[in-house]
Input
Amino acid sequence: MGKGTDTMDANRSTTPLTAIIRAEIAELSAISFHHYMSLCLYHPEYGYYRSGKTRVGREGDFYTSAYVGEIMGEQLASSILRLTNERFAGSDAVEVVDWGGGTGRLSRAMLDAWSDSGEAGKRFALTVIEGNPEHRQEAGEQLAAYIDAGIARVVGGQLDRLPDWSDRPVVVVANELLDAFPVHRIARRDGRIVEWGVTWDERSESFVSCMLPRSGTNWSAWLEEQGITLLEGQTFEVNPDAAGWIRDLARRTNRALLVLIDYGDEDRELSAPHRMDGTLLCYAKHRAHNDPYILPGEQDLTAHVNFSHMRRAAEQSGWRQIWYGTQKRFLVESGVMDKLAEHRNADPFHPLARRNRAIRQLLLSDNMSELFKVQIFERT
Output
């Protein structure tokens, strides 16, 4: 949330990751954009989400909806309570998993809301899964009281070390998680579907885009299977890792709810004529631009989530969609308008003024409330 767009003037500065990526390119002449993005975001030492630096909030590169007051967490908490009462009737306890929970602000807001209603600990326990070590530390501080009470915990994100939730009901919340998965970038050129790659240009001493001579995936067949048609010259992002994550969750759960909150749209919008260059964006110090080759490993790379693709992957693995719509509609239907309060205090920092401002920002700011979608699935 709050990721604005701008242009960015910067030298193509080298970083510790530059030499590592160049070495891989030297062996193959080019690597896929997906592999390049994976290294930039998740290299174990120099990756953007693994380097230990704070990435969200004022000191980071962007804000999420969890940073706009506590409203999003409160509305999620009330919706999760209602859904678990409907879907998991008779269950004494439900584990809520905030996957990619960052610094723990969203989890803290949910736990505070459940604590106020007497449900924290009694009905809900919460686990934050977060790969960034700095964020894990901050989340531990945010949730310290709940951790001490045995109601919350913070863990790393290694899939092979995570529990199997098949023996108990679980709610997985993924707030701006799927947009952080690396994507393949494909395009239609001269009637053929090809994949974008990355190579090194000696003249400019920088990484540049290229077309891969061959791809490990038959993207033409994939597009046909998905019912997507690209225009000549059009670029399109594909996120099979996010779809795979959803399928993996299905293998780990029996009774479950999955709540996805992210920016993106459906097939038809993402392949529309005004989307000729795809949706890839880069973020650094709260500024957005479209050059993924500046400062590898030190800026965020992201693309819009294709919710049609996520729906197909989920339904093929046993999930059933029970709600889909804009963040604005989700907030309104969950009762956020009831939290707007009248007040006559002229102080803009008065708690009621700040709360009203947070609600308006979530609902109205920069059309983000329409760009962000909420998608909810169940397994019963």
